[in-house]
Amino acid sequence: MIELHTLFTPNGRKISIMLEETGLPYEVHKIDFSKDEQHSPEFLAISPNNKIPAIVDTDNGLSLMESGAILLYLAEKADMLAPKDELGRWKMMEWLMFQMASVGPMLGQVHTFRRYGKGENKEATERYDKEAQRIYGVMDKRLADNQYFLGDDYSIVDIAHFPWVGRWDWQEVDLHDFPNVLRWYLEVAARPAVKSGWNIPENDQPLPIPESK
Length: 213
Ligand SMILES: N[C@@H](CCC(=O)N[C@@H](CS)C(=O)NCC(=O)O)C(=O)O
Prior knowledge:
- It is a single chain.
- The protein is of the alpha+beta class.
- The protein starts with a strand and ends in a 15-residue tail after the last helix.
- Helix 4 (86-116) packs antiparallel against helix 5 and helix 5 (122-145) crosses helix 8.
- It has two domains: 2-78, Glutaredoxin (3-Layer(aba) Sandwich); 86-191, Glutathione S-transferase Yfyf (Class Pi), Chain A, domain 2 (Up-down Bundle).
- The chain is globular, with a radius of gyration of 17 Å.
- It has a four-stranded mixed beta sheet with strand order 2-1-3-4, with helices on one face.
- Helix 1 links the parallel strand 1 (2-6) and strand 2.
- It has helices spanning 10-22, 41-46, 67-78, 86-116, 122-145, 156-165, 168-171, 179-189, 192-198, and strands at 2-6, 26-30, 54-57, 62-65.
- The chain has nine helices and four strands.
- The protein binds glutathione (GSH).
- The site of glutathione has 14 residues, from helix 1 and helix 4.
């Protein structure tokens, strides 16, 4: 059984969506940032970087932090949502690393400066808005020739990207400017596991769906 230590944030939602997709048995442990629970000694023992998400696999005692590592582990455990051929696995690594190193950190800065900082730091807001537009452009190009990030098959790479793109409203990005991302987003958003995973732990933030133009 998987213990999932998480909160309803983009990185947390990657793993709740993944667990909903796989059907692996799991139990949710909410880490409440308002109570500083991410810095508790119990949580640090499984997540030394004091960030969610983290898991413990009670079948073998393994604890893991870092959403990319957790997605890879769960894909292997469930034997699904990852390519099996060698070249396909390298493309998975490439686009998963892109998500972890660029999409998450840069869009996270947009949340910090544009949403939480209300755009008061103009230089930082402009810098990360520009970077967000560039990154959405990269995703749009990839999705122009591919139904999903790895081609014909939905995978952990789509799951890694989805909750970050799912905050286009906070980022004040118009998905209509990126039609291939929009097409992909609507398709992934319609998956039952994505809808249920978005809401774990229970929260009052509905999955945003752009109005059609
Ligand atoms: N690279 C990490 C980033 C995790 C991360 O930034 N988690 C945030 C929430 S999305 C967090 O736990 N923040 C709490 C804090 O910084 O105190 C991953 O992908 O798992």
